[in-house]
Each structure stands twice: as structure tokens, then as C-alpha cells.
Write a structure and sequence with these properties.
Bound molecules: 1,3-dihydroxyacetonephosphate
Number of domains: 1
Number of helices: 10
CATH superfamily: Aldolase class I
Oligomer: single chain
Structural class: alpha/beta
Shape: globular
Distance between the termini: 7 Å
């Protein structure tokens, strides 16, 4: 059983932070091959981090891309540019992009196609707000986001070139996490959606949990059925905590 541990550095990290990724790469060498490790730094660090991580067990991803291949879009970055800089994946539709930039699920869907066009694996994020959960709408909201954010067909119907991350907005950066039962119920819903949408291949799409994942809770969360790993914010900024989460993931690969 594989697990994915993906760090989202968000808008954190200057050149000096590359020493952390060197430590992560050193620690990764001792990790089990069943654990996929990736860091998604700010765009300014993608190329230098990809250089540092070449020939290590750590890969590099972007945090967003534009849907177009090139053009008059000041400040934006094409999926092709991320791939050119050495990224292998890109986070799309993170709640901070949906909130800060008004990104819609339709835009996320277009960006997912862009990622595939450039040969990147899209990591598509969904998740409810606290008000939506309190109103009993968490599963409906996630279902709506999945329906609109994911393309109807995968580029290769025999291969799961897609990662989905369930990140309840109220758990991001707050130290609060849903109960195991709530994570379990939501991940099962996401799995059912993916299987209904993509058939057998949908069973193999990794579904990551994100939101205040720490070394202390990672093992228990990653042992839940249909939790195939974590999308880690704050705890990915330091090698020690990121590697501790990776070690918890390795334990969870034993089933
Ligand atoms: P935190 O781990 O800091 O809560 O962030 C989660 C997240 O948003 C990852 O994309």
C-alpha cells in the first residue's frame, strides 16, 4: 500500500530554506519506497529545489498554475513553466486560492487540464467551511466541488494521474482536526465519487487529508481507510516534523 506525504509551503521560504529540503532529502533516503515525498514550495524556489532534489527520493510540485500555456497574464505561471522548472505536480484549487483569489471550481477544472497538458499530476483540493459543516452540508459541498473541479475523463483511462486532497477549511492552520469518524466518512464519499466517475481507475486515485496534520496525529489519520496520505502545511516547513510525518506514513503502509 502506498502513502503520499506532500508538503505545501504556501507563501513561505527564501533561498535559505533550501537547507531544510536538503535535510528532508537526506532523511528520505532512509524512508520506505512505499512513501512518496514531495514539497510544493513557492514558485520562486521550484527550480532551485528541483535541482537540490534531483536524484533524491523527494519530488517537487507547484502551488497553482494558469490554465493557458502562455500569453498576456501578468504574474501568472503556466503549467508548462512549472514542468520546465522541474516540478512533477501542482496543487490546484487550494481553499486559500478559492478564498483569496475567488477561484471557482470551473477554473480549477481548466487548470487540471492544463496540468495534464504539461505532464504534471494535478493535486485537486476540496473542503467545506465550518459554517457549511455546522449546517450539515459538508458532504454536499465536497460533492459539488468534486463534480465541478474534476474533469469528466482522465487523460489515460488506464492510469490514475490525479490526486485529490480533502482539506476542511476550518482545520487549516488552526490545530483543529475532524474526528476520525468524520474523516473516514468524507474519504469514503470521495472514493465513491471517484469510482462512479472514473470506474476502476477511480479506486486507485490517492485521496490525501490536509488540515493541521502533525507528527502527533499523522499516524492515526493515515490509518483511516481511504486516507492515502497527507497534504501538510505548517509541519512541512521543518525537516524534523515533515520526516516524522513521513515515518508515520511508512508505518501506515503496513495496513
Ligand atoms: P496546515 O497543515 O498548516 O493546517 O495546512 C494545511 C494545508 O492547507 C495544506 O495544503
Amino acid at each position: 500500500m502506498m502513502k503520499w506525504v506532500i508538503g505545501n509551503w504556501k507563501m513561505n521560504g527564501l533561498g535559505a530554506a533550501l537547507t531544510e529540503v536538503e535535510k528532508i532529502a537526506e532523511g528520505a533516503a532512509a524512508q520506505r519506497p512505499e512513501v512518496v515525498l514531495m514539497i510544493c514550495p513557492p514558485a520562486t524556489l521550484v527550480a532551485s529545489m528541483a535541482d537540490k532534489c534531483a536524484a533524491t527520493a523527494v519530488s517537487v510540485g507547484g502551488q497553482d498554475c494558469h490554465a493557458a500555456e502562455s500569453g498576456a497574464h501578468t504574474g501568472d505561471i503556466a503549467a508548462e513553466m512549472l514542468a520546465d522548472a522541474g516540478a512533477v505536480a501542482v496543487i490546484l484549487g487550494h481553499s486559500e486560492r478559492r478564498t483569496d483569489h475567488g477561484e471557482t471550481s470551473q477554473e480549477v477544472r481548466a487548470k487540471t487540464h492544463a496540468a495534464w497538458r504539461a505532464g504534471l499530476t494535478p493535486i485537486v483540493c476540496v473542503g467545506e467551511t465550518e459554517a457549511e459543516r455546522d449546517a450539515g452540508r459538508a458532504e454536499a459541498v465536497v460533492e459539488e466541488q468534486l463534480a465541478a473541479s474534476l474533469p469528466d475523463t482522465l487523460p489515460d483511462q488506464t492510469r490514475e494521474d490525479l490526486i485529490v486532497a480533502y482539506e476542511p477549511v476550518w482545520a487549516i492552520g488552526t490545530g483543529r482536526v475532524p474526528t476520525d469518524a468524520d474523516i473516514s466518512a468524507m474519504h469514503l464519499k470521495v472514493r465513491q465519487h471517484l469510482e462512479a466517475r472514473y470506474g476502476k481507475v477511480g479506486s486507485a486515485v490517492p485521496i490525501l487529508y490536509g488540515g493541521s496534520m502533525k507528527p502527533e496525529n499523522a499516524g492515526a489519520i493515515m490509518a483511516i481507510a481511504h486516507v492515502d496520505g497527507g497534504l501538510v502545511g505548517g509541519a512541512s516547513l521543518k525537516a524534523d516534523s515533515f520526516l516524522a510525518i513521513a515515518a508515520a506514513a511508512a508505518m501506515a503502509t503496513n495496513g
